[in-house]
Amino acid sequence: MSPHSLPPAPAAYRTLDTDGIRAFLAGVPTLATRLGGPAAHWRIREVSDGNLNNVFLIDGPQGGVCFKQSLPHVRVDPAWKMPLDRTFYEAAYLREIRPCVGALTTDILHFDPDLFVLVVESLDRHVVLRRGLMAGGDWPDAARAVGAFVARGAFHTSLLAAPFEEITRRLDVFSGNRTLTRITVDLVLTDPYRDHPRNHWISPDLDGIAADIRTDPHVRRRVGAMQARFLTCRQALLHGDLHTGSVMVADDDTRVIDGEFACPGPIGFDCGLFIGNLLLHLFACGDSAGQDRAVRDIAQFWASFHDTFGELWRTATRHDGNGDAYAAALFRDDPSGLQQAQADFMRDVTADTIAFAAMEIIRRIVGYAHVPDFDTIPDRAARAGRQAAALALARDLLADPDIVTTIADLESLARGRAR
Amino acid sequence: MSPHSLPPAPAAYRTLDTDGIRAFLAGVPTLATRLGGPAAHWRIREVSDGNLNNVFLIDGPQGGVCFKQSLPHVRVDPAWKMPLDRTFYEAAYLREIRPCVGALTTDILHFDPDLFVLVVESLDRHVVLRRGLMAGGDWPDAARAVGAFVARGAFHTSLLAAPFEEITRRLDVFSGNRTLTRITVDLVLTDPYRDHPRNHWISPDLDGIAADIRTDPHVRRRVGAMQARFLTCRQALLHGDLHTGSVMVADDDTRVIDGEFACPGPIGFDCGLFIGNLLLHLFACGDSAGQDRAVRDIAQFWASFHDTFGELWRTATRHDGNGDAYAAALFRDDPSGLQQAQADFMRDVTADTIAFAAMEIIRRIVGYAHVPDFDTIPDRAARAGRQAAALALARDLLADPDIVTTIADLESLARGRAR
């Protein structure tokens, strides 16, 4: 898949089985203490759910940890070889954003650079938001928490928050995350818009709309621009894979996990992936109450992101922040000027969000990695019909940027199309 | 000036005087051979003209070379300390772009990483374009050559030309050019829009317009956005200081020099600086024929840039190029779609160009480093009047992005205002 040759795995690397994991954890005093008791009593469960890594939860008498290890290939496709560095980038991402998002993500407990093992807090009382939504659950605060997560992470890694020397140095680390960025470029931004053997969909039901998306000149023009936007616009450090499967929820707690796709990019990419996955859920959702909740979640995510980001920016300006973009000196004495500048800025983020949401919908129905949300619809024709409606919305959003220019309009349009 | 501490100069570093330069060149066989004859016969002339480095031309019986050495301070202000790495970045820039721009820049002959000495082709039959224009000279092909230079350098370092892995790796080198990028951020993008002791202008004549620019809410809003654009939009490798003093001309030859400000950024920054300096010349120019030539040069620069860039892009698409933005697969069979995508792309580059041209005009009249073009006007009041007209144009361009949306409109408006 990658045009680049694979670096050799470090000599010390080996994929750990449960015995290996037990010995590894016992050898790290802080982790052994956290788990408590003799290592032989620790319960080790594999919970690998994503496509890439081995993930285990370990419970001891005192507490639990989550153990994540990179494999030298894609977990679900051993023929697809891949370098090991993705847990390095996930650890680096946690170190960057944990100070500004606090308990909206997991605490990093340990990283081993030889084994590419990352150990973080265990979230064993949480469920994956996507799975919870598919089961008809409701977490009224989750979307708001994710919005705050994106706003805080993005603001504090942007040129609004610090001088360019510092921001560039921090973002450049993640330029090295080439393997996973290549996956995003291929699977999200490129493959669905060309004939590619990795693409698949319910055929022949969706053949027409899939071909329509591939050949519509307006869609292609917009997709080309969004490819450039993702790769050239370094607004902030992105999570890079912020779908509903990257969010863990409990009744009173929301955590964003799985930051291994972290890369510099446009803030609307994170917003667009999250909203795109809520829209996928909306279209997969059979009942009106569930659809209402999906729309509410989109609205709350966006309001939370928008307001939190704006407030961080206003505070930095008031306190004479030293960011080099929209320098504080310009707006310190001009709150209404700052308000207008923020509106300009958010107009661009909104446009990016809508376009990336549309591209996420498309790639999750006709690309390589589909979402399971539609699996709740047992009838194949009905499933294809819901997917076709989602695809048609996405196509229309890309073909005509003026069809929807606010997230509120997006909610209304999607709600109408999903009925 | 820099918020960062200065790295110590390498132990081997010393500033070379003419004897030191002679010994240095004699010690590099390729350079000694190029000069020819005994070293004692070489003629060494200091030609330092820019603000930063020592520059000497050396002539021998066989040929000449240009010797450039970084100083541990700004050449024209020894109290302003500065790291030595700028010749490293200039050498790196030449290595990047020389393969795609050929003889539109100088060949790099030698780089010494201890002494921070860069030796390039001597251009002793050339004159600096700015000085030539000020003397009333005319180089009908120069602007076209500079347009081709920008187009080729930008295209081949952009995501239109190569996969992101390669482009990111190449651009990230220049993220390290923090000292000179800080100068751009402060002197070009920030200081003229705040009270700062480095700012100066013909006072009291220009006090009003300078204050107007600093306080106009529409100008501030646009300046804020352009600060963000310069620092977050990594479209290509920029020259970074492409004014008319960075271009050397002979009757049949044009070369762009002084790439030490090279950094990743929006392509319109290079275009805007060059056009901004031609506009400064236009406003400084007393005679109608000279003004006509300045307008012609702007038109030819832009046509050359626009057409060369578009043709490189079309060719890459036809040949199934592997750039990740506007991927070839989208447009290979759709030339009219590509044409529209190019129009979208160029609309953004044009908007950037106009805004950065305006900011260049402003900083060259009220900021730290002025242009000498206006020195040809002996009468102080007349000089201030021409400068005020240039500033008013720049202010209007920033305050209302719709006043001018094409370079042709910019030419007309400027020509009218400069009369």
Automatic annotation (TrEMBL), chains A, B:
Gene3D superfamilies: 3.90.1200.10, Phosphorylase Kinase, domain 1
InterPro entries per record: Aminoglycoside_PTrfase (IPR002575), Kinase-like_dom_sf (IPR011009), Methylthioribose_kinase (IPR009212)
Domain Aminoglycoside phosphotransferase: residue ranges: 44-274
Keyword Electron transport: no
BP terms from Gene Ontology: methionine biosynthetic process
Keywords per UniProt: ATP-binding, Kinase, Nucleotide-binding, Transferase
GO molecular function, one term: ATP binding
E.C. no: 2.7.1.100
Assembly description: Homodimer.
Record NCBIfam families: MTRK
Family per similarity comment: Belongs to the methylthioribose kinase family.
Protein name stated in the entry: S-methyl-5-thioribose kinase
Species name: Gluconacetobacter johannae
Gene name for this UniProt entry: mtnK
